[in-house]
Design brief:
The chain is an alpha/beta fold and 368 residues long. It is 39% helix and 17% strand. The chain starts with 8 loop residues before the first strand and ends with a helix.
């Protein structure tokens, strides 16, 4: 490990949303989301030295992330728990109480991945949905910081004292948040602590970081930046590329299309960008030597993997860190196997540790 490189956070993925396969698009009962399987992934990630683990949330797929977080917090000691919350489906005062309780259970290891979701069946414009998310995150932050709130907003009308339990905790956990549209970027600049990006070329990542820095400065804030992708690492590049081919070897294209279409974010700006990158990839699906778009053929959302030998994967992560990324949320198929491989071949070469973050809150009128 190079000690003069910047410290970055390296997180794994708990696959709570029925997103674990040996062969993409081919369901496997042993890999389906369950308490047994997903808790083993989290425990393995902690044993292997990861700093954080994403607990994803979907409406119709997998198991409930908040309930899972409460359970796994009692079986882990050090790893942070990045809990995904679908804000459009939640009631803010109740959510504040749940988060404060989870902070007690986990000894303040909880961090939040805020998702600007809709209630299933709801149909807001992207701009309206992100304005609502900004209101929700403001109100949630106020309550978790122990402040009473009286808000007559566009979407949220609320006058309430903070729940008693928040006074025993350390305030609002850091907020991780992603979204590529203009409205999403404005919401992140005002409300997030870590802006998450799906995979793209390093040049594109750098340009997005520059844009978000400027937006955040308008609120007197600064952000950290995260990268969410898959990874396939083997002893040689040839073996890694062969593992990528094997992963897709049984995919029925019709099933792949159906998997992508059933996601509630299937038409978002970020998903469209992942589709665009697949369309300009080479015959094997690579947009750069070690960036492979094949995962996106059977998955909505982050659809690109870093593929290569240990030195190549490490070099790519270092390149992104030099561009400004300080948090990496990684996954691989099957998740237990790839967790072990990454921790063996790459993690020792990365100067990593939990990010030192605190949530910063600005008045709602400054955000609008």
């Amino acid at each position: 490990m190079s000690n003069n490189r910047p410290l970055v956070e390296v997180a794994w993925f708990a696959a709570l949303c029925d997103d674990d396969y040996e062969f993409l698009g081919v369901p496997d009962d042993d890999l389906q989301s369950s308490w047994s399987h997903c808790s083993e992934i989290v425990r393995r990630a902690e044993i292997n030295g990861f700093d954080n683990v994403l607990l994803p949330s979907g409406y119709s797929l997998g198991i409930d992330a908040t309930t899972f977080a409460a359970g796994i917090a009692t079986q882990t000691k050090q790893i942070r728990l990045l809990l995904a919350l679908r804000l459009g489906e939640l009631v803010v005062p109740q959510l504040a109480r749940q988060i404060a309780t989870l902070q007690q259970i986990s000894n303040s290891r909880l961090v939040i991945n805020a998702i600007s979701s809709e209630m299933p069946g709801e149909n807001l414009t992207s701009e309206a949905r992100y304005r609502r998310t900004t209101e929700y995150l403001y109100a949630l932050g106020e309550l978790l910081e122990g402040r009473a709130i009286s808000l007559d907003g566009e979407f949220l009308q609320l006058s309430v004292e903070p729940p008693r339990i928040v006074k025993q905790n350390l305030g609002c956990p850091p907020i991780y948040f992603g979204g590529l549209s203009e409205a999403a970027r404005d919401c992140a600049a005002a409300s997030a602590d870590v802006y998450l990006m799906w995979p793209d070329t390093t040049a594109k990542v750098s340009s997005v970081i520059v844009d978000l820095k400027l937006r955040a400065q308008q609120f007197g804030r600064s952000l950290n930046y995260g990268w969410r992708s898959h990874v396939i690492v083997r002893e040689t590049e040839r073996e890694a590329r062969e593992a990528a081919r094997r992963l897709l070897s049984r995919l029925d294209p019709v099933i792949g299309d159906a998997i992508r279409a059933r996601s509630l974010d299937a038409t978002s700006t970020g998903v469209n960008r992942q589709t665009e990158l697949r369309s300009v990839s080479d015959d094997e699906g690579y947009i750069e030597q070690n960036l492979w778009t094949g995962v996106g053929r059977a998955r909505s959302g982050a659809g690109i993997a870093i593929v290569g030998d240990p030195d190549q994967v490490t070099a790519k992560l270092h390149e992104l860190a030099d561009a400004g990324v300080s948090s990496f949320i990684l996954s691989g198929y099957p998740h237990l196997k790839e967790c072990d491989l990454f921790s063996r071949y790459v993690l020792p070469q990365i100067n990593h540790g939990p990010l030192s973050l605190s949530h910063t809150q600005v008045a709602l009128h400054e955000q609008n």
